[in-house]
Amino acid sequence: MSTFAEQLAHAVELHDSLVCVGLDPVLESLPQGICRDVEGIVEFNRRLIEATADLACCYKPNFPFYGAFGARGLDALQKTIDAVPDNVPVLLDCKVGDIGSTAERWAHMAFTELGADAIVVNPYMGGDAMAPFLDYSDRGIFVLCHTSNPSAADFQQLSVAGAPLYEHVARKTLEWNVAHDNCGIVVGATQAGSMAHLRRLAPSLPFLVPGVGSQGGDLAGAVRDGLRADGAGLLINASRSIIFASGGSDFAEAARQATDTLRVQINAARHQARGVAQSG
Q1: At what angle do helices 127-134 and 100-107 cross, to 10 degrees?
Q2: What confidence tens digit (pLDDT) does each residue in 50-71 have?
Q3: Distance in angstroms (rounded) separating the CA atoms of residues 32 and 153
Q4: Is 95 annotated as catalytic?
Q5: pLDDT < 70 positions in the chain
Q6: First to last CA, the chain
Q7: In terms of residue numbers, what domain contains 69?
Q8: What is the DSSP code (8-state) at residue 28?
């Protein structure tokens, strides 16, 4: 079995894309012609995936949008993951971070039962909360580092031993990656001041980058500051701006157009950033 890193690299090259499509369905926002129930979520997601699978490098379903419906929602999540083609990895966003047997059960659910290729984990409880996830050497572990929400500064920018807390998280993630070689970090596109610093600190780690769509993050700046030397290393996530690009029966076509537009914008910034780096 290939690793998450290998799957991701293949999808990036195959589709010339750093776009991660967030699958965060909201019943009240489902478009015309889609039933506003759990079965409608599955149909909605399948049609979105069919329309964008050759343009995306990853899909990121957000667990609460499914778990809120109990067993029916978990079934919808499973069907959604199963609908993604094998050549595009799935990153489950559930931001888990408990310890011991609880973490083991979360890892088993995400990787063994649901078949996700990667997961987002909250590192607040430390290494013993991370260990059960890291032990899945073929899966990706994205550690919350410097997020895109307005209140991120409440904790993430607190000074600890002369450096912001998010920097300590990045350094610890680097340690975990030395041992397991399956880590990445979450860095919001709204965190323009830290993206370049984190890339210098972690030159090889993949960055999951939310916040470029409806949250208004600086796309060109995120690509310029976060791109790895190989021209990859970023998963630029967009959810609402893609999946709800239209509220009409043409939602799948609109989602495809929105995905391709974002892909083109990212690639333009990507090529410009690489050109500047090479000329420098």
Answers
A1: 30
A2: 999 999 999 999 999 999 999 9
A3: 39
A4: yes
A5: 1, 213-216, 275-280
A6: 39
A7: 4-279
A8: G
